[in-house]
Amino acid sequence: MHALPLSIFAVSAPAPVFAYMAPDIGLGALGAALGVVAALLLVLISLAWYPLKRLNRRVRARMPRVAAAQSEARAPGAGTG
Predict the structure, then answer these.
(1) How far apart are CA 59 and CA 66, in angstroms?
(2) Whole-prediction pTM value?
(3) pLDDT at 9 over 60
């Protein structure tokens, strides 16, 4: 009964690896991983930025018309002394 869990553990346990990895290789791998993460973040930011920029332009384009319509809606002689 106790042999099955022990054999499963023995098969699934990682074996030690005795290898040397130079510091420059490790830094290169770390830099590549950070570069991929930064690229993904920039993709997400750009997917959100350009639609928001376009929406901002549309809103700003409408604002002068709204302000002009409000000023025309006022009484013609209002505010003149």
Answers:
(1) 10
(2) 0.46
(3) yes
